Amino acid sequence: MVEKQEQKPPYGMIAILFIGAFVAILNETLLNIALPTIMVEFDVDATSVQWLTNGYMLINGILIPASAFFIQRFKNKSLFLTAMALFTVGTLLASLAPNFNVLLLARLIQAAGSAVMMPLLMNVMLSAFPIEKRGAAMGIFGLVMVVAPAIGPTLSGWIIEHYSWRTLFNIVLPFAVLTLLLGIFKLKNLTPQRDIKLDVLSLILSSLAFGGLLYGFSSAGDKGWDSPEVYGTIIVGVISLVALILRQLRMDDPMLEFRIFKYPMFALSSAISIVISIAMFSSMILIPIYIQTIRGISPFESGLLMLPGALVMGIMSPITGKLFDKYGARILAVIGLTIVVATTFYFTQLDMETSYTTIMILFAIRFFGMSMTMMPVMTNGLNQLPMKDNPHGTALNNTLQQVSGAIGSALLITIMNNRTESKAKELAADAMAKMDPSAVPNEQAAAQMQTEIMNQAMLNGINFSFLVSAFIALLALVLAFFIKRALPAKEETRSEA
Asked: Per residue in 381-403, pLDDT tens?
């Protein structure tokens, strides 16, 4: 393995995997803005159409944890080609879908292909680069991880305003076909294989655990925490997760190796990544609500707001990677998270006059801070793992990010809704107290007053949610001071497992 790493890394092969992962992750957020249009065309309700995103997310939640098994069991070329073929077939089917059921099936097929892309790309990069050059390599990987989801809403907003929603798939399809063809002729096998068998019970428990948690928390903002569908799936998810962990700890060859959390820098990086993911979703969810609902700005302009930040992150990711190789993760994470905390706190001061440009600049600065934090912290944690545990490390990292993102969304939307409701009652009571008892307001004035009260209450709810998010980010900042430069642990024999 050392001899492989001392050779020149296979940049052409990594570029192919990079394009495949970028297209797959871009596609995940591309459809969100098109959902209202699809509802009208296929005459389906909001609950049904939401399954185009929920279903995609659930398939990812089921297959990403299993990716550790796939990466160890199958050659990276055959695994990539299978994943890319599924994604391409799903994309073609979606662009031609005659009804909603076919479109939903197409999205699930797409998700089955895309789920393996990110863990596979990370594993190839960890295998291809020596530890002292991994930062620069994983910095490039950061482009896929954050830039693709960030430009998705902007791109889809523009397309939906000018073309059919099918264009979203028609644009992705040529890139998917090209990547598949390049993979057939150019990819080589790099990651080592082991003759292991899949434990079916582990896969079932994993599906129930992560699928239940993802669905439950993702539905909480819409259905409410008192819905049996929400707390029921979360309870199933928690029980299944406990059963999954206990089973994996008893197995010599687990599907998902939870024992890697004994490595302190990996465990710390996972904790920081979870906290960052929760904090990051505050701006991704709350700002569009503020921009579109309170300020009445179009969805396209709302998506455009995030584009400069995505570009900043794209430019900074490779630079941050090289700085990581030179200085380590701690100094970068401390500086980056200080920026994130400061900008998040600034978002607690939003009002009805805050300019679009101010929010865009704050977003860009916040993303700059994120670019100094996410990949260095994750790479430092993975660097401590023995080579054989890399598939488990990448699978757990990707899974935890998905679940913590869903938890962050549910938490912040709930905080915002509760604060909005209590503030609306307070403002309504104040307005009634100030009103002349003898005056009889006309219907139009009453409606206008109610709208103003709700907007002010929602603005207060958003600002309060950002305050909670700032304290969450502050927790990550405190944890960042404990980061140490990680070196690979010695390989352990199976008898020690």
From this structure: 888 888 888 888 888 888 888 78
d(Cα 55, Cα 111) in Å, to the nearest integer?
A: 8
Confidence of residue 9 (pLDDT cuts 50, 70, 90): low
**pTM of the model as a whole:** 0.79
C-beta separation of 175 from 4 below 8 A: no
Residue 160 forms part of a structural domain = yes
Higher-pLDDT residue of 254 and 6 is 254
Q: Estimate to the nearest angstrom the gap between the alpha carbon of 132 and the chain centroid.
A: 27
Q: What is the CATH number of the domain that holds 454?
A: 1.20.1250.20
Phi (first) and psi of residue 193, to 5 degrees: -110, 155
* Residue 45 buriedness (CB in 10 A; 0-12 / 13-18 / 19+): exposed
Same domain, 101 and 138: yes
What dihedral angle (degrees, nearest 10) is formed by the CA atoms of 76, 79, 81, 83? -130
Name which of 185, 169, 146 is nearest 87 in CA terms: 169
54 Rama sector, left if φ>0, alpha if ψ -120 to 50, beta otherwise: alpha
For 261-300, what is each residue's pLDDT tens digit? 999 999 999 999 888 888 776 677 788 778 877 887 776 7
Tell me the residue range of the domain where 203 lies: 199-254
**Tens of pLDDT along 56-103?**
878 888 888 888 888 888 888 888 899 999 999 999 999 999 999 999
Distance, in Å, from the CA atom of 177 to the CA atom of 188, rounded to the nearest integer, reads 18
CB atoms within 10 A of CB 424: 19
246 and 142 in a common domain: no
Token representation of residue 337: 């998270």
Quote the CA–CA distance of 391 and 124 in Å, as a whole number: 10
Count of CB atoms situated within 10 Å of the CB of 444: 8
DSSP state of 489: P
Rounded (5°) CA angle 181-183-189: 155
- Unique residue bearing structure tokens 């707001």: 305
The C-alpha R_g of the chain, in whole angstroms, comes to 23
Q: Are 216 and 409 in contact (CB under 8 A)?
A: no
Q: Answer for the pair 377, 269: CB distance below 8 angstroms, yes or no.
A: yes
Distances (CA, A) of 64 to 170, 275, 398, 435: 26, 20, 7, 58
Give CA–CA dist 54/58, Å, rounded. 6
For the record, the structure tokens of 141 come out as 């990987």
Tokens representing 391 are 């598939």
